[in-house]
Amino acid sequence: MPPEDDRKRARALLDGATAVAVLTGAGISAESGIPTFRDALTGLWEKFRPEELATPEAFLANPKLVWDWYAWRREQVAMALPNAGHVALVAIEEACRDRGVDFTLITQNVDGLHELAGTRRLVELHGNIRRVKCFDHGHAVKSWPATDGVPACPHCGSLLRPDVVWFGESLPGVALTQALAASQSCEVFLCVGTSTVVEPAASLPFMALEEGAKVIEVNPTRTPLTGRATIAIAGSAGEVLPDLLL
To answer: Among candidates 28, 217, 192, which has minimal Cα distance to 111?
Structure first.
């Protein structure tokens, strides 16, 4: 089937849906110039493995090393702007809201670009690198002093850490519950820029399929979902999503 026909079918599915869920992954962030997690292990950090920088054990062993890496990544994120894919998803959400259609955007990304673009119903499965919390108790901290070391929590004195999910940690319970509910109740599931291999997010589009939803995949490369998706559109988020506007 010609690609344009797939896009027309996708638009029709979104236009007729009574509930829409979206899952986004690293692909949409890469279009804004944000390196993927493993691509961020370059330059000064290329000699490290993720397990040395993104686990509770790594932080306990060398908190300054971990803090400095995430500070460097925050600087990269701060320079990035939402791209056409982020903006299109905001427009799709607004169109759904105008029609009284339930909309939930679930993201694996930690860069905060969906919120910056204007997405309202947002579930951040892996946290947000722009936020910090304390290591011992999870107190949310909005600002912290510039220091050569690792700042301390103003509430309890424990060290601050990025508010992201590290290897070996569970996803935030509320976020996971919201993601599961949206995936199980949607009529159309839009999967954008994710490899569908990182669990538990990878299972969400397949869960939607099992519940009878139509699944639309937008990705420039094939994934484990491609062969099972209702519609699989090969292309980037910024190129494809504006063409799916209702």
So the answer is: 28
Helix (H) or strand (E) holding 6: helix 3-16
Q: In sequence order, what are the beta bridge partners of 217?
A: 191, 232
- Neighbour count for residue 106 (Cβ, 10 Å): 27
| 126 belongs to the catalytic site | yes
Per-residue pLDDT of the chain (246 residues; tens, 9 = 90+): 456 799 999 999 999 999 999 999 999 999 999 877 666 556 556 677 777 889 999 999 999 999 999 998 999 899 999 999 999 999 999 999 999 999 999 999 999 999 999 999 999 999 999 999 999 999 999 888 888 899 999 999 999 999 999 999 999 999 999 999 999 999 999 999 999 888 999 999 999 999 999 999 999 999 999 999 999 999 999 999 999 986
- Over its C-alpha atoms, the chain yields an Rg (Å, rounded) of 19
| Token code pair at residue 154 | 């103003």
**Alpha-carbon gap, residue 73 to 58, rounded angstroms:** 17
CA angle (238 as vertex; 234, 239 as ends), nearest 5: 50
One of 114, 126, 137, 155 is an active-site residue; which one?
A: 126
Q: Is the dihedral of CA 194, 246, 94, 19 positive or negative?
A: negative
Q: Rounded to whole angstroms, how far apart are CA atoms 245 and 42?
A: 37
